[in-house]
Design goal:
Layout lengths: L1 H29 L2 H22 L1 H12 L10 H18 L1 H22 L11 H19 L8 H32 L2 H25 L17 H42 L9 H17 L1 H15 L5
Length: 321
């Protein structure tokens, strides 16, 4: 089961990379990144709503959530996801999936430190450790390498830098999103209910922004693209979530996170090889940055593995007085 979970988690990370490519294509072909994000969140929410309506166990979880209400801000995790999806629709056609993903992972590394320190997640406050700080710093270094690797070409260095900064901020918001979704999951006992709340919270602001943009005449200027696959972003997002849900029991949160990141980066490089962004196919520095990012995530998890082993030893070793 563990071997199967490893494959599922890695594939789930690849689905995230594929989702960013699909949303980017829809944004480029329709002429509106907000439209691409709205379609992604809307289709995902519709699919999840159908599942919740037909599965009695999930309906019971929704009822539990209604009885045990969390603070209102706990339900806003989807705002981070909406930002990430909208930004991917703008950034991926320009710089490719790999560059965008490195920025996101760097933001997740730094944001994770701040989120844990503030105690936003269901596990409460966690002080930053030397290994986690070192991992975050290495991830930021990977972003710098990507930036200097795009010194020219169809996209200017200033544009690449702006996208990297924006994707890093979006990655940090994603850390907040994961913490808040964890709180919702803890209250309902069902990850799919937390995912539905996430999609709903992200869809509302996207719909409002899209309506405002469309009213000013800046909405989608092109007809709906005929290719069916450009509308699959929401389903790919659900697949990513379901992969994590299924694999976490066998792998634990730490190993799951490492494998998801590895799948995201590998999928990003593969996607860029098949369909490069305007900066062209990945170069040597992109591969270096991807490897550094994977190493950074591994370093950030060293302390957690050590703590888990210490905890297990303490629970299995009898104490004497």
């Amino acid at each position: 089961m563990t071997r199967g979970a490893v494959g599922v988690a890695f594939a789930g990370g690849g689905l995230f990379a594929l989702q960013t490519r699909v949303n980017g294509e829809l944004g480029a072909r329709s002429g509106s990144a907000f439209w691409a994000a709205l379609v992604s969140f809307g289709s995902g929410l519709a699919a999840l709503a159908v599942v919740l309506a037909v599965v009695p166990r999930l309906r019971a979880a929704v009822a539990r959530a209604a009885r045990h209400r969390l603070p209102w801000w706990t339900y806003l995790g989807g705002l981070g996801g909406a930002t990430l999806v909208a930004l991917s629709a703008v950034a991926v056609p320009k710089v490719g999936v790999a560059t965008f993903t490195v920025g996101v992972v760097a933001g997740q590394a730094v944001g994770g430190l701040l989120v844990d320190r503030a105690g936003l997640g269901p596990g409460g406050p966690q002080a930053p450790t030397a290994s986690r700080v070192a991992g975050a710093a290495l991830a930021v270094l990977a972003v710098a390498i990507i930036r200097f690797g795009h010194g020219g070409g169809a996209v200017s260095g200033a544009t690449v830098l702006a996208i990297l900064v924006a994707s890093t901020v979006a990655g940090a918001m994603g850390s907040v999103q994961q913490a808040l979704n964890g709180r919702v999951q803890g209250a309902t006992g069902e990850p799919l209910v937390a995912a539905t709340v996430n999609f709903a919270a992200g869809l509302v602001p996207l719909a409002v922004i899209f309506a405002v943009v469309a009213a000013t005449g800046s909405g989608p200027a092109l007809p709906w693209p005929p290719a069916w696959w450009v509308y699959a972003g929401g389903l790919l997002g659900i697949g990513y979530i379901l992969a994590a849900i299924w694999a976490v029991r066998a792998l634990g949160v730490l190993r799951l996170g490492l494998l998801l990141v590895a799948g995201q980066l590998a999928g990003g490089v593969g996607s860029d090889l098949v369909s490069p962004g305007r900066t062209g196919r990945p170069g040597l520095l992109t591969y270096v940055a991807v490897v550094l990012t994977i190493v950074a995530v591994g370093i950030a998890g060293l302390q957690s593995r050590s703590r888990r082993a210490t905890t297990a030893s303490a629970t299995t070793t009898p104490t004497t007085r």
